[in-house]
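Per reviewer request, we include the raw input and output of the structure prediction for the construct analysed in the revised manuscript.
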Amino acid sequence: MVRGRRSDGPPPLSISEPGIAHRLARPAPRRQSPRMRIALYEPEIAQNVGAVLRLGACLGAAVDLIEPMGFAWDDRRVRRTAMDYIDHVEIKRHAGFEAFGATIGSSRLLLFTTKGRQSPYQFAFLPDDILLFGKESAGVPARVADICDARLRIPIRPQVRSMNLATSAALALGEALRQTATLPG
């Protein structure tokens, strides 16, 4: 049982079967029209979270924050980076990965990782995909990566290790919304 979880909620997510385990959880209620989501796994840097919240507000994507986070949620740095955009984005905080998993429903969980082999530019996105990004220092543990429907890697020069989390989220979300013809405006 996840700490802080109500006992009358859905059962904990079983992650023993790769690729389909998240579909075993109780499906989340479907919106009238599907909406892309960004999920941040245990983010460590408040400014990155603020920038992703602003991104979600601007492009119409909901943001899921999977705790624990590396900073206090009331941290002024989050609000300073997100500015007044924080009032225009749907934010859901989850007590842990299992609590988050219970909200996935039939959406695909797509992990963006430096260990991925497929480029998002050669991947077919769906309007209700969930774009998952790991913590800045370590990504996600193998148990989380194993249940994702795809592992995608944003192409970068071989001389560098990785991009900033918020920059990666912006590139990924922009491409996913472009492909699904759901860019705002």
